[in-house]
Amino acid sequence: MKKIPENSILKKEFTIPFFNMKNMKRISENIKNKKKSKIYKRKRKTFRGLLLKNSLVALSVTVVFAVGLFFAGRMWIFQKASEETAFKISHIRTPVEKHLNDGNNKDISAYMRLFSGYSIVFDDINAEYQITSEYNENCHIFSCITDKDKNIIYSNRMALQTYMQFNEEEKEAELMSCDTENKDIPELQQFEKDYMALNEKVNYNTVENYDIIKKVIMKSAYVNRAENKFIPHEADINLIKYYPEHEEPRELIESKSYKINVPEKDGYELIEFDLSGVDHFDRIANDTYPRYFALGFAGTDKKWFDDIKEECTFDTSLIGYRENAGADIRKYMQSSEIYIDGKPHLLTVVLQIDAWNEVTKPLYFKILIMFLIITLVVAFLDAWRKNVRNQAEYMFEDYQKNLTDSLAHDLKTPLTAIGGYTENILSGSLSEKETQRYLNSIIDSVAYTDSIITRTLELSRINSINDINKVSTFIHTIIEKCVEKYSVILDERNITVTTDGQAEIPANTQLLETAIENLVSNAVKYTSGNGSINIRISSECLSISNTVNRKVDVEKLKRPFAKGDTSRSGQSGSGLGLAIAEQSALSNGFMLSLSCTDSEFTARLIF
Questions:
Q1: Within a domain: residue 594?
Q2: Bond prior to 290 in cis (omega within 30° of 0)
Q3: pTM passes above 0.70
Q4: Is the pLDDT confidence value at 574 over 80?
Q5: What is the number of structural domains in the chain?
Q6: Is residue 49 in some structural domain?
Q7: Which of 268, 298, 328 is the last residue in one of the domains?
Q8: CB atoms closer than 10 angstroms to residue 492
Q9: What is the reported pLDDT for 5?
Q10: Does residue 319 register a pLDDT over 70?
Q11: Closest-CA residue to 544 (of 485, 486, 492, 596)
Q12: Of 298, 317, 349, which residue constitutes the final position of a domain?
């Protein structure tokens, strides 16, 4: 019979608050009613829900970006068009004045057509992407020179143009123009109509990185050198596909031949070009003379030119910059005074831009699709990150809940026993022997409860360790201390312990000792009488095996309060040893592996 120490809790008549009888009854009742009480549990978020939420945010951001891109892109194009209009005034004025000063005013219009193209691109240096197409019914550039009588003297009205060089002595090739509106030559008008019809097939800087262009190949032409005029006689219009940045062979997509017979005209002579050795891809005849460099049709669309020319007659009050604002289509006008033969004239440039055209539309949607893909990828990665974090939090919550439930479950039995024994003692109906037996049971229950609480706190402490300081540690030294600690029990139960090997590893000594202590303690506790414990040590693994009477399920043994015995009512162990051992191992960066057969249980600590 156990004697009650003088300073024990029972001698103090339960004056410590925790073991006050009322508190003990309240604790017991709370534990019994724990499962009946409603505990708020927050709704857990799934990866699908997170991804859906993030995807909706990505779509919303894309919509906002789409609206912003539309208006910002349109304003950017309009700003570039405004700058282009001012630039074109000086760009056209300079060559025109140069030719006028040189006395070469045969066909100023030819140079106005040549310099009236516009370029609104992303990269002004490399001109990598034309943002507005010149082959668009709403995108045009108009330039003209008018006199005081409001007559258009020179303009960039569309015409067929080419450079010609007639002999080797000529320093420069001459710029020639062809008026295709001669009603006496219907073949010439058909030539222009067919050429312009190919505009729909022309494509620059496509996503496939090839260009489709038009080229005029002339075998012969009627030429008026005095006026710098010409009319094609035998010519081809070729539609060609080629890769400007590569050396892939060019491909002739479409070709059409023409023979234009011209009635006799004063000042025109028929000239033939030597095209031997020249294929349909070239625009320059070979080194024999005469030769040409075909430019094709250049200048402003005739119909649009006729519609706009009434706005650009000579009026000094119009000198300067004007803008006709619109939603997607805007017109910019710039006028400047220019002198011809000492008389004032007006140079006017009009640039009309359609911001929503066949170039910007696909580019706009391409940018949007890329932006949407990027935002969806970001949404997916963010949802995945949040889900990983949430799963870790949920696992920790489940761990805490299971730990609390298991602790409450294991504390319920000894607390209930303590309460029952105490009530019986206070009733005064027990004999002295029965009272002493009840008091001994109370002491055992208190000791067991204290053991559970102590080991739970130890597990919690190990879980909270963040900074691990590793040093060189001898495993066999720790094993020897642990075996020595249980030598009395081993002798009483006639359990044989064999140890083989030794190793030195980097580890946190305290955590490693805790893990090994709990593994050895578990082996001693559950080894059958007259059994054996075999310990094998190496630099890769520590293996502790002990004999058992039957096979146990090791799957859940590393969970807190899990016991090999399916009955949890006994007080033979807290069920925390292997949980503490695993957490100590994990904190050290090691792994604990368990296995069991019908006769042997093995725990391996893998370094």
A1: yes
A2: yes
A3: no
A4: no
A5: 2
A6: no
A7: 298
A8: 9
A9: 45
A10: no
A11: 596
A12: 298
